[in-house]
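Its record is quoted verbatim for completeness.
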Amino acid sequence: MGQKEESMNIRSAAIIGAGAVGAYFIWGLKSVPDLDLYLIAEGERAQRLKDDGVWINGEIYRLLVKTPEEAHEAPPDLIFLAVKYSSLAEAADEIRRAAGPATLVLSLMNGIDSEEVLAALIGEERVLPAFMRISSNRENNRITFDPGVTAGVFYGERDGNNDTDRMKALQELFNRSDVRHHPVTDIIRQQWEKYRANICYNLPQAILGVGYGAYFVSTHVEAIRAALEEEVVKCAAAEGIELLPAPDMTRKYPPDARYSTLQDLDAGRRTEVDMFLGVLIEKAAAHGITLPVSDTVFHIIKALEEKNEGIFAFELPAGAQRERGTS
């Protein structure tokens, strides 16, 4: 009889991305005894992390920063991927260069396709589906969140069988940490339900520049939200996923709360609309489905990004006068 394979034991973990989600895991895992925790970064981003650290809830955290090649010298048991969607391709390549044959990867990004991208690069067997629920604010490199109300990380095997070595290893790690965690048996459906919530609540307020309370005082804002939801549900059904009814969101956040897409536009940053609506429209097209509302909102947010970048900062020639329009 062959020797029994040794169970997975997570002794080292690396984080790629030090925004809100990465910061949560820095905060939650930093005090775990005997865990080798570090950041993976290179170039200007690595230097910035070394120089400035990461400010989390008013406290500065300084972790060791390794390049992917340095990390690969003793590959981490676990990698958390916590970057913006626009950085997915770059981060996936860093994972390819840093990971070893037994490295497990958790993608904590919003959306529904980052695991597909990673699986194509390093193999599906090394990627465990997961997502985060966190409400946070970011100003420059200062990140704030309330640990008491942060739901944390949700994770599970695609087939719902959570009695696997890697699920047990993750639960053991998280149980020794301050990370709130939820092993679930329907991870893909729950990913889609978070995706739906992000699209339906993140994006209408972003195109209008209004707080969260607008959904509950304006029938027009609510109509945009409902139309987007209908298109997400239609696409999910085509993918073989039946979404549960959306929960009541009326009093979930303060009326002036601003989701991440509006925060990005406020700060002049590129948004994650490609991950939200770009992917949805692409998946729908593969099934021969058109999503007119999603398509329109996608282009509006893209135009707002261009506006932030000054593409529409037109100036009249010197001495010219602007004519008054008439109708």
